[in-house]
Amino acid sequence: MRAKMEDIEKFVRGFSRFQQQYFSEENTLYDALRAGQRPTTLLIGCCDSRVDPMLLTGSDPGDMFVVRNIANLVPPCAPDAPPGVSSAIEFAICNLEVARVIVLGHARCGGIRALLAPQQEARETDFVERWMRIAAPVRERVLRDLAHKSSEERHQACEQASILQSLDNLLTYPWLKRRVEQGKLMLHGWYFDIDSGALMAYSARQQQFLPMVCPIPTRARAIE
Question: What is the model's pTM?
């Protein structure tokens, strides 16, 4: 119980710092945001507590419209698509008219681990397993093509391939695809390496993830 109370106290102190930063007389950001939000970017990220998009990118309130779910997946456009994620994408594209969409995946993703090694024992619910079926084609391709690789290599390959799957699924939304074709919307696939602290982006030209922000040299040596 004491640990839980300490957590709550930490969160309250954190809000107090936020209040001092953004609601002081010197900061007028929320004066503008009260009239409405105008984010330039939709970021689709993972629920993982280690991968907070606003913290990772140093963003201020109002900079990003963020959708988070297990393993940063995008369901394809279909009448039975999960409405939570699809409705957020629709709102960001059609109402807020963001200029870019970033799908942010990361290393050591628990959702991808569940995808590659589904639970064998029966559970009261199977929400995670059902959600991860969106990435089933990725699992099948990785297990087929990388059967000779280590489990760690297959795991990372699946993490990165699921980002590309989500980018492909975004293009199944006709109003989104139309904006991409008109040059009004850019799509990006990013990968955060928790081990090294690096940020990588997918290059369609190179057909691989390349560093945008390299590891800090001392950190890179420490994990070798």
Answer: 0.91
